[in-house]
Amino acid sequence: MSSLLLITSAPSSIHAWHALGLAQALKEKNQDFRVFFYQDGVMVANNLQWIPDDQRNLALEWAKLNIRLPVCVSAALARGITDQDNAQRHALHTHNLAQGFELVGLGELADAVQSAERILQF
C-alpha cells in the first residue's frame, strides 16, 4: 500500500516526531511511501535552527532515512527558508536549506496525493 506522509506540524511538535517514526517503520518494512513537508512542517529544513546538544535533530534524522525530502517552496520562502537558486532569484543574502531537503512546487504534492492509496497528515 502506497502512503503519503504530509508533514504540516512544526519540528517542535510531537506530531512531527511521530511522522518520522512512521517513516522509519515503513522504510524498515520496505513499504512504499513518500513524504511532503508543507505549512509549518517546512521549518524542519531550516539549517540555521539551533538544536541543543541534549536533543535529537529532526532534520538529521530525516536525512538518515536516505529518501527524497521535498519541501514546498512557497511555504519555505514565506518562513525564511531558501536554497541557493531561490536566494539568488529573490536577491536574498544567504541560503539555509538543510542538506538532503529540496524545494519543490505544489505540483509534487498533487502528484503524491494522486498516486497514494492513503494519506496521513501530521
From TrEMBL:
Record keywords, A-Z: Cytoplasm, Transferase
Highest taxon of source: Bacteria
Protein family per UniProt: Belongs to the DsrE/TusD family.
An individual GO BP term: tRNA wobble position uridine thiolation
Cytoplasm found in the keyword field: yes
One Gene Ontology molecular-function label: sulfur carrier activity
NCBIfam families in the record: PRK00207.1, sulf_tusD_dsrE
Protein name listed in UniProt: Sulfurtransferase complex subunit TusD
GO CC annotations, alphabetized: sulfurtransferase complex
Subcellular locations according to the entry: Cytoplasm
Keyword Acyltransferase attached: no
InterPro entries: DsrEFH-like, Sulphur_relay_DsrE/F-like, Sulphur_relay_TusD/DsrE
